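Human: Respectfully, please carefully check these tokens:
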Amino acid sequence: MAVCEVCNNDYEMSFEVHAAGAVHTFDSIECAAQKMAPVCNNCQCRILGHGLQSDGRFFCCANCARQKGVAQLMDHA
């Protein structure tokens, strides 16, 4: 069994995520998202889908980007 690096649960069905040259161990998608998903620069929600990015800042939607002065980003519809 392996221990989740977010909640420290020792779980027989834990899994590894290999990203950016590092290996992370989690017991759930929820813990993986908590550790790996970027956070919106405006509302601080976890970005689990196709977020937006500008100058190294992440946004969950174009509205949040506009609130931080990034007018050129648009949501995909």
